[in-house]
Amino acid sequence: MTTIQRAKGMQDVLPDDRRYWDLIINQATELARLYGFQRIDLPILEYTELYERGVGNASDFFVQKEMYTLEESEDVTLTMRPEFTAGFMRAYIQNGMSSWPQPVKLYTIGPAFRRERQQAGRYRQHSQFNCEILGETDPAADVEVMMLAMNLYRALGYKGLTFQLNSTGCPTCKPAYVEKLTAYLEKHLDKLADIDKERIQRNPLRVLDSKEPGMDALLADAPHIVDHLCDDCETHFADLRGLLDGLDQSYSINFRLVRGIDYYTKTVFEVWAEGIGAQAAVCGGGRYDGLAEDIGGPATPGVGFGSGIERIVLGMQEAGIEPPAPEQPTVLVAHFGGATKEAAVLLTFQLRAAGIGTRLAFARDRRSMKSQMREANKHAIQTVLILGDSELEQQSVVVRPLDGGEQQLIKLNDVVAFLK
RNA sequence: GCGGGUGUAGCGUAGUGGUUAACGCGUCUGGUUGUGGCCCAGAAGACCGUGGGUUCAAAUCCCACCACUCGCCCCA
After folding, report:
1. What does A88-157 look like in DSSP terms, one character per residue?
2. Is the pLDDT of residue A406 over 70?
3. End-to-end Cα separation, chain A, in angstroms
4. What's the confidence (pLDDT) of residue A365?
C-alpha cells in the first residue's frame, strides 16, 4: 500500500516555518490597526457567478482551468475563492456598507485557491493578506493602501524594494488606447513572437509585459497609456504622484505594468523585491471602480492590494531574515513513574495554572534521569524539577537549573513562588 | 496545456553492472544505584519513485509512467 502524500500544490507549514507567518501576520495586523482598517472574514466558498462576472475576456480560462468548483445542487455551483477582491465587494454590497461611514476600510488574512502548475512562491492553496478601501475615489486612498503594503515589507526587513506604478485608464479612455496600441503592434508584426501575435487577438495589453527578447526597444516606442488618459484619469494619476512625492516615496512609472481584467481602473501598482524566482512582485494592487457594477451592485469605487504570505516567507528566507523562535516552556518536570508520576502530573498542572509554561516528561513505567535530562536540553528548558520517591516523602522537589547553578530542595507548596 | 531538472532511511548525500546498499545530521537506548550539553558505544530506520525490458547479475543500462521541482502559458 502506498502512503498518502500531500495533494499537489499544497504546502505543510511546519513549526519552524510558522515563525515567519507569525511575524508577518502580527506585523500586518499591527499596520492595519495603525491605518484604521478593520478585520473582516469572508467565506471560502462563494457562488461561482461572483468570480465569473466581470473578469470579461479572461473568464473562460479562469472558470474552466483555474477554479476549484463544487456542485452544490443541479444548477448551483460553489467556487473556492481564487481571490479576495470580489468577495470584499460582494460583502460591502450585501451588508449595506454603503450606509456605514464612508469609506469602509477592511483587511483580511486567509487562504485562496487556484488550480495552476506550481512554481516558486506559487501554490494551489496560498494565503493572502488583503487590504481594501471601499467607497472612496480620492487618490489619497490609493496612497494609503500603497504605503501600508510598502511599510509592511520594510518592517519585515526587506531590502531593494521598489514601487512599480501605472494607470490602466477607465472605460472612457482605455478602449481608445487599446486600439492605438493594437494598431502600433500590427505595424510591427514581423518583429513579434508567435505568442505575442496571439496576445494581440486575445488581450493586447498583455503584449506589454511580454518576456520575449527584443521587446524593450519595440515597446519603448509604442503608445504608453499614461499619454492617453482621459482628464479624470490623468488628474487622478497626477494627484497620486504628487502625494507620493510629498511623502518622499520613490516609484517607477512602469508602462508595461498591466491588468488583464476589465474592472480595473486607474491605479495599478506592485511592490517588487529582489529574488523569489521568476516573480519579482511581492504584492499587487490597484483600483477597481468597475467591479461593483459587474457583480450587480451600485457603482462603488474601491482600491486595495493583496499579498501572498508564502511569497513573503520565501523572500524573507532568501534575505536571511530570522524571526525569533516561538516561546516554549522553560520548566520540565521529571519523575520515575508510579506514585511520583501522579505527583508530577499534579505539580505540572499547578505550575501551568500559575502561568508557568511547563513540560511534563513522559515515562510509561521506568525512564532514566539521563534520558529526561537530555529531553530537557533539547527543548531549551531552563529549570528541571525532579520528583523522586525521596522528594515525595519530604513533600519537596529538587529544582535543578540547567545554566550551571546549584540545585536545591524546595517544598512542593513553595515551588510556584520560588519559580516566579 | 508545453518544456528543463531531480527522484537512494526523517533530512543532506555517497555508491554509475558484481557478496548482507555506505556516510553525516537527526531519533532512540546505554556508558552501574536518580542528573543535560561534549565524548564513546549500540539500535531502529531504505521493497534505491513505480512498472516493464536487457543481462548469469541492475540503485547503476534502456523504455514507459508517476511524483517533486523550476520555467513557459495564465496570473483575478
Report:
1. HHHHHHHTTGGGSSSSEEEEEEEEEE-----BTTB-SEEEEEEEEEES---HHHHHHHHHHHHHHHHHTT
2. yes
3. 53
4. 75
Q: CA torsion sign, A236 to A240 to A246 to A251?
A: negative
Q: What is the pLDDT of residues A136-174, one digit of tens each?
A: 999 999 999 999 999 999 999 888 899 999 999 999 999
Residue A420 CB in 7 A reach of strand B? no
pLDDT score at A319: 82
CA A306/CA A286 separation, integer angstroms:
9
Tell me what ipTM this predicted complex has. 0.87
Q: Which residue has the cell 539521563?
A: A370
- Domains in chain A, CATH or no CATH each: 15-173+229-318 (3.30.930.10), 331-419 (3.40.50.800)
- A122, closest nucleotide (Cα–C1'): B75
Reported as a single tens digit per residue, the pLDDT across A5-32 is 888 888 889 988 899 999 999 999 999 9
Quickly tell me which residue has 491605479 as its cell.
Answer: A267
Strand B–CB A400 distance below 7 A? yes
pLDDT of amino acid A279: 59
Residues 203-262 of chain A within 7 A of strand B, judged by CB, are 203, 206, 209-211, 259-261
Q: CA of A316: how far to CAs of A18, A35, A130, A269, in Å?
A: 13, 24, 19, 21
Whether any strand B atom is under 7 angstroms from the Cβ of A374: the reply reads yes
